[in-house]
Amino acid sequence: MTKLENGAAPLDVVVRFAETDAMGIVHHSNYIIWFEAGRVAWMDAVGMPYVEVAAGGNHFSVIGLQIQYRAPARFGDEVRVITRVSKLRSRQVSFAYEVRNGEDELLVTGSSDHICVDLEGRMAKIPPHVMERLQTGVAAMLEGDEP
């Protein structure tokens, strides 16, 4: 289980060959997959596993995504995906990401916006028990403590 560090959930990834392109660098689409893994790790770290959200009849649908590429990662590199919540509202949650290499060089930054939906895809309020756990996680993030 990922633990919060300074309010963020770090997720370490070793770049696989399949994640690289013909130039030998990580293909841009893989960072988005790593963001997804970072989101799930953050939710696990604050005690709100995404599988519980889904089992309760809700999902967080992506409504926006931004990414800025600064430097490449390559096959075999160890990178760290750092995830934080940047906004939490009654129906929406936004995450901010950094991807850094082993030398702590910033490779990529980004963000994703999500809206809570029910199983039919209709917008819904984040259920109270989910919101409470997310808020506890955000509070711990701001204080630099474990939830």
Q: Any idea how many domains?
A: 1
Number of strands: 5
Counted by DSSP, the helix tally is 3
Q: Identify the overall geometry.
A: globular
User: Which structural category fits the helices and strands?
Assistant: alpha+beta
Question: What is the name of the CATH superfamily?
Answer: Hotdog Thioesterase
CATH top level assignment: Alpha Beta
The major beta sheet can be summarized as: 5 strands, antiparallel
> What is the correct CATH architecture?
Roll
Q: What is the rounded distance between the termini? A: 13 Å
Mean pLDDT: 92
Task: Give short descriptive properties of this protein.
globular; alpha+beta; Thiol Ester Dehydrase, Chain A
Protein described:
With 147 residues, the chain is of the alpha+beta class. The protein has a single domain, classed as Hotdog Thioesterase (Thiol Ester Dehydrase, Chain A). Helices cover 27% and strands 35% of the residues. It contains three helices and five strands. It has a five-stranded antiparallel beta sheet. Strand 4 (92-101) and strand 5 (106-118) form a beta hairpin.
Summed up:
Helices cover 27% and strands 35% of the residues. With 147 residues, it is α+β, with helices and mostly antiparallel strands. Strands 1-3-4-5-2 form a 5-stranded antiparallel sheet.
